[in-house]
Amino acid sequence: QVQLVEFGGGFVQAGGSLRLSCVVSGRTSSSVIMGWFRQVPGKERQFVGSTRWLGGTPYYDDSVKGRFTISRDNAKKTLFLEMNNLEPEDTGVYSCRAQVGVNYYWGQGTQVTVSS
Question: In angstroms, rounded to a whole number, what is the distance separating the alpha carbons of residues 109 and 116?
Answer without folding.
Answer: 23
